């Protein structure tokens, strides 16, 4: 983890002192540009923009990613990962790899637990079915990361804390 306290918040992309970047892709870091800086300022181009457990409809749960850059971003090497409840060890066996997806500028990518249930609940199709028991199947008290390789790009929750009754619980909501 790129932090000293293990705490991340929605939209938190990097830790203090990370080498950071702005909008387009580079050959070494697909989620960052070729210009870099240091000192804790961090702006990645892809992040989790929404996480939902709609009315506890397990099949309609989803994670939405957003590309805030002016260019396309390949998601090769990216994955979603979940820490269940208060576990300090992630559930790596249920990672959702995002290889093969390319997000256009300003685009979203919705990864749902079950495509048919998602479509029935929202009247639209999700982009990718991530399955049950993983990061897109959270009931609101888990921790979820967007990874590039093993580096955390974006994180929701507090590792080692069951989110029930906390500010980051989203059970039956977003």
Structure description:
- By secondary structure, this protein is mainly β.
- It is 5% helix and 28% strand.
- The chain has one helix and twelve strands.
- It has one helix at 115-122, and strands spanning 20-21, 36-37, 46-52, 62-67, 73-74, 78-83, 96-97, 102-103, 108-112, 128-129, 143-148, 151-156.
- The longest helix is centred in the last third of the chain and has 8 residues, at 115-122.
Shape: globular
* Mean pLDDT score: 74
How much strand?
25-35%
Biggest sheet details? 4 strands, mixed
Question: Uncertain regions: pLDDT < 50 for 5+ in a row?
Answer: 1-43
- Helicity range: under 10%
Number of strand segments: 12
The helix-strand sequence is EEEEEEEEEHEEE
Radius of gyration: 15 Å
Lateral strand order in the biggest sheet:
3-4-9-10
Helix segment tally: 1
Distance between the termini: 25 Å
- Overall structural class, as computed from helix and strand content, comes to mainly beta
């Amino acid at each position: 983890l790129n932090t000293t306290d293990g705490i991340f918040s929605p939209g938190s992309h990097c830790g203090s002192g990370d080498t950071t970047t702005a909008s387009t892709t580079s050959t070494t870091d697909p989620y960052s540009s070729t210009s870099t800086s240091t000192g804790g300022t961090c702006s990645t181009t892809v992040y989790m923009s929404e996480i939902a457990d709609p009315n506890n409809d397990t099949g309609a749960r989803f994670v939405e990613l957003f590309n805030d850059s002016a260019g396309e971003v390949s998601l090769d090497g990216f994955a979603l990962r979940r820490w269940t409840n208060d576990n300090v060890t992630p559930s790596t066996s249920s990672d959702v790899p995002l290889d093969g997806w390319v997000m256009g500028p300003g685009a979203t990518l919705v990864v749902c637990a079950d495509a048919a249930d998602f479509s029935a609940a929202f009247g639209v199709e999700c982009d990718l079915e991530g399955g049950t028991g993983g990061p897109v199947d959270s009931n609101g008290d888990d921790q979820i990361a967007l990874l590039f390789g093993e580096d955390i790009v974006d994180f929701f929750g507090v590792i080692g804390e069951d989110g029930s009754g906390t500010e980051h619980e989203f059970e039956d909501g977003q």
